[in-house]
Amino acid sequence: MDAYLGGLVVGQAPWYSNSLLLVAVAFVWLLLAYRWYGRWLERKVIAPSEAKTPAEAQYDGVDYCPARPVVLFGHHFASIAGAGPIIGPIMAVAAFGWTPTVLWVLLGVVLIGAVHDYLTLMISVRNGGNSLPDVARSVIGGPARALFLVFVWIGLVLVITSFCAVTTDTFIEAPGIVLPTFALMLIAILFGVMTYRLNMPTWQSTAIALVLMAGVVALGFMLPIRLEDLGVPTGQVRTVWLIVLLAYGVIASVVPVWVLLQPRDYLSTWILVGGMLAGFVGIVWVHPTLKAPAVTPSLWSPQPVWPMMFITVACGAVSGFHCLVAGGTTSKQLARERHGLAVGYGAMLTEGALAVIALVAVAAGIYFTRDQAPGGTYALLDILGQKAGGGPIAAFGRGFDALTDPFLGRLGRACGVQNLGMIAGILMVNAFVLTTLDTTVRLARFITHELGGQVVPALRNRWLASLAPVALALVLATQKSAFASMWKVFGSANQLIAALALIVITGYLLRKGKRAFYTALPALFMLVTTMAALVWQAYQYLVRAEQPDYALGITALVLLALAGGMAIQGRQVLLGGLLGPRRQQELAPLP
Questions:
Q1: DSSP three-state, residue 336
Q2: What is the pTM of this model?
Q3: Is 292 helix (H, G, I), strand (E, B) or coil?
Q4: Pure H helices in 174-260
Q5: What is the per-residue DSSP string for 395-455?
Q6: Residues 128-146: tens digit of each pLDDT
Q7: Which residues does residue 368 pair with via DSSP β-bridges, in sequence order?
Q8: Does an H or E element contain 310, and which?
Q9: Backbone φ and ψ of 287, nearest 5°
Q10: How far is CA 559 from CA 151, 152, 341, 478, 498, in A?
């Protein structure tokens, strides 16, 4: 029988449940994918030129602003990563087991997610930094742009809602991270001034910022911030945190990118990369056994592995939200086309590596239990707050604490701080959640302006265009819907945006006379999978539930209707991508 020590299993275990072996195979796979498939896409599909990018040709100092490659990688990675590649794999492992989860992460991120991100970025760069919905109008048709914009706007509202909700939960669970989280904003502004106004070398600005960040983390341990201690009634704490976070998102969305967005994302990348390295060292040091079942006995019940596992993993394998970042902010900051592969394809592969580390943290670092009822399922004890509270991010923090106990735990205890690894893990995720939040609100501002600016002149105002999606997100975030249900609707919307983006990319490549099966096939798979997930969710929320959840059920139906309309608009593009441009032209011309 296995023995339990510090939350980790030691003793006899099947060879395939060795976490170090899993991580080694995963990282080698991702490195080979970058060198082979990524370079092939760069060479055969994009062929970077030395022409001026929109960041230089359309410089305005607010949205169009060239960034140094390492800084832009930080912005892009911080914006796309967020909590998605951590929350999704954790929930998928709990429901379906680690084997199907890790297989989808590794295959999906290489063949679909990174391809989607890189090609979206470069197509936007080649089209003046315009968003993918604008490209959709030229390659699919006018109605496709309107459908895409509406779909994207709803998806962004769901992103804002989900990430605000999960950040609020972690602020309540771990008050020691509140001060460091918000202090990072001021440090980021200082970094931006040092780098872009005082022209200090990047390494000097980085060193100063990292020292300050270490100081505020230590200060956070000594000064945990609990709203109850400040006089806020317990029943209103969650609402107050939601308002604070959303207010931050509005402010961050209207200031110039060099002031907060670029430096904050760059510094957050240091936090996440440092956390990933600590997690990797912990895995090498402890190499714990994966305690989670490889495949759960309930693989098809109470929710089917297809399509639900794919939309539950969400950002860890492929994310439609990334096309909005790539074509919304990153393309406006890319200084040279040759930097695109590392920023677009490389950042997504790095996100896949993060998903694998998160998977190992919960599958090996915290206890699993088996529901003894007939047909009972395996579940993480910490997942969704059923035992210890705090939700998936807190579960990740506990697992990360177990992995890093030999060095972070000892350091913390020597300094009189308990569970230093847990605090570090939660802070690592929260720093990225807020970077995703401010980028998302900025993108929602762009889309709100495009959708309603001509009809309602007031929406041309940057502040009002930011407030519109934020107000709806606040309404949704204060509903009684369980986070797990909200996450699945978000995942469906997110994956459908990816499918629609891949359809547009396919149409663009066809217009350039290129074969596009490597985007058309993933587009078809994601479209069918996510539409099936929406049908299942609508049935669950509106028909099978004892108390119907009309907010989520109706949202699922609206998304399904929009996706159906977009699929009809793009059917000829998909056909051309699958059969080849010449054969497709014989069947029907592109609209």
A1: coil
A2: 0.83
A3: coil
A4: 178-192, 202-222, 237-254
A5: HHHHHHHHHTIIIIIHHHHHTT-S-HHHHHHHHHHHHHHHHHHHHHHHHHHHHHHHHHTTT
A6: 888 787 787 777 766 777 7
A7: 380
A8: helix 305-313
A9: 30, 65
A10: 7, 10, 32, 21, 13
